[in-house]
Amino acid sequence: MGRKQTEKKTKDKEKKSGSRTKARRGDSTTQISQLQGARDAGKKQFMLAEKTGTAYAGYIKRGKVFLADLVSSRKADLAAGNGGAPDVPDGNGEMIDFDELAVAFEKPPNRYSALALELFMVEKCMNQDLGIQTGQSTYSAFKKHWEMMDNDTYRGPYAYDETQKRVSGNPALSAQVQDILHTIENKSRAGGDGRNHAEAMTIGSMKKMMEWSEQTCPSDWLEKDIKDLGTLLTVSKHFLMRAFMSSGFTIWTRNSELCGLQRRHYKQDCEGREPYFVPHDLVRLENRKGWTRRTGASHAIVGNEYEIYEQKKTPEIDMHFHLRQWVLFLEKKLLVRPLKADEYIFPAISVNGMTHANKTIDHDVVQKYLSEFAASVNLTADYSTHCFRRGGAQYRFMQCPLGERWSLSTVRWWGGWAEGEHADTLIRYLVDELHAYENTHSDALHPLQREANVSFNGDHILTSPVTAAELREFKSSLDRKIDGLAVEAAKLVLTGLGSMAACTTASVTPHSGLPNSIVAVSSQPTIYGSPGPSRQAQAIQNMRSGQTATTRGPRRAVPAIRGAVIPNLPRGASAWREAVKQWEEADITSGYALKDWPIEWYTGEMKNVTATKRTQRKVITAEYERMNRDDEEFIREYPEANQGIKALLAAINKKRMERNELIQRRSKNGTPNERGPS
């Protein structure tokens, strides 16, 4: 009996197992197409970083446009009878079939695909004289384009079968494409374009700019009541740039990465690891170039969080201090409210003093400020905002004091370079610069030789005893510094006395009442032939007296209501729809739609700040209502809407005048016809 029960259980188990096996097999058969779809979608999403994929798609699109224009132009010339020879040979001497050439970038590739890519690269890098990066990026984009076609069909060495009229391998690997790629690289090197990367910002240059900025605009402006618009804009620029420069130098960000930093990415007063619990701030970078987002439960990005500690020994690059100062100034003086999580830490600031916290600062504005700061301390290098990334990496790798330098592994992690990335980037950032430093002899006449080629970065000098020559040079350096400070102080005193004399109209005899040392300095020729106080001294005096370079003529008051911000409209055909949206829908920053604004937000002191932009939105919406909110009717009535907001407003106002709804202002001198010829 026991045996029969056992056999029955075994048979039942086999039946269940068989039914489950059949079900799994059936599911696998029905899911093949789904798995293939998931495979293709995964490749498209994760094969390349998002920005890289977007950039490659742009090159492919431009290549197809170029090819279409090339073929259509050739056909038009032939049709007009001015195209010269009716046929054009390819590289093998055969006549080109332009209909086949027109689809050379489509799927599948044909015998002209390699030729089409070659011609496109010639157009970009020879005719348009664009740089090596354009040539290499174009090549990489099309190489990947063909690799992704039909799995592995177009991978590997290129070949064309004349008999079967079929391409095998990747057209980008053809001899003619490889030859033009090498030609572009050689052209770049011959033109001195071989090392076209940003000038590195040094710690010394950072110190000069930061000290000038601190002298011109001290941190105590946080506690002052700023009522003049010009002063507000100038002080804002200094606080912003001190935070931007120290942050870029510390966490080695590119311009776009730092401009895109939001309040939710920045956390203050974090507690360090035990047992010391050193306080710090935490900065999280998202969408850094080359990083790929993970889609797990934490939605985290590898290596994107940076613990920012105080750097009291190097205040010029103390991101912990300067970023805190800027955020405090932004919330206290510009927004007059806390910054929201999704608002930008480096927002756009209009010339009227209004802060658009939901819009990032323009890259060109940052570049303009950087050039201004560099020129103010007589730095002649042509810096771009990428200079902080390169300079910060070099400083931590080979310029920090001994014992504080970072390993190559730390540099790679901190800079966001992936472990699988080519070593070329790190070599360009670090090793090339070190090689140039150790082998240059441009300072051979310097009283103290660096001996950079004796040891790594010339570090043996730092551990050697101090020599008498070094002490003499140190004393000379101090003397020059003291002399310079004395001259600056004398100029400030003389300028102040001159202002007092002008106010009291009192006559002052030469050198009366002045200390002999100041008289002696004032009687000497001005250094470098520039009359009056230096730029730094003048800037300091102007800031202390409430004057700035932007406060010429009558001073403009700081906007009374900082929350009354109207975002700018986009360019092009979508502008009018955004204008209607702003008029009718509540803004996330102010909490109001323009139609519901409190009257004091666009009258009185705020009239010159917001009234014009608000009225423009009102006029466009009213005309849209007159068209019964019918988009097609509105466009038929005002085709200028597709050109942009300026053309649309001009057309609307013209119609309003025809309907006697708008009266044109009359000049007190009459119309141009009444005034007659001038």
State the gist of this model.
51% of the residues lie in helices and 4% in strands.
Tell me about the biggest sheet? 3 strands, antiparallel
Number of separate helices: 22
User: Could you give the count of β-strands?
Assistant: 7
Shape: globular
- Determine the strand fraction and express it as a percent band: under 5%
- Span between N and C termini? 126 Å
The spatial strand order of the largest sheet comes to 3-4-5
Estimate percent helicity: 40-55%
Order of helices and strands: HHHHHEEHHHHEEEHEEHHHHHHHHHHHH
The low-confidence parts are 19-26, 292-303, 505-537, 548-553
> What value does the Rg take, in angstroms?
34 Å
Descriptive overview:
With 678 residues, this protein is mostly helical. 51% of the residues lie in helices and 4% in strands. It contains 22 helices and seven strands. The strands form three sheets. The protein has a three-stranded antiparallel β-sheet with strand order 3-4-5. A hairpin with a 4-residue loop joins strand 1 and strand 2. The radius of gyration is 34 Å and the shape is globular. About 9% of the residues have low confidence.
Task: Write out key terms for the chains shown.
678 residues; mainly alpha; 3-stranded antiparallel sheet; 22 helices; 51% helix; globular
Task: Map the helices and strands.
Elements: H1 2-46, H2 50-80, H3 98-101, H4 113-127, H5 132-147, E1 159-161, E2 166-168, H6 175-190, H7 203-216, H8 229-251, H9 255-259, E3 266-270, E4 280-284, E5 305-308, H10 319-334, E6 347-349, E7 355-360, H11 363-376, H12 387-399, H13 408-414, H14 424-439, H15 468-504, H16 516-522, H17 535-544, H18 575-584, H19 607-626, H20 631-637, H21 645-658, H22 672-675
Antiparallel strand pairs: 1-2, 3-4, 4-5, 6-7
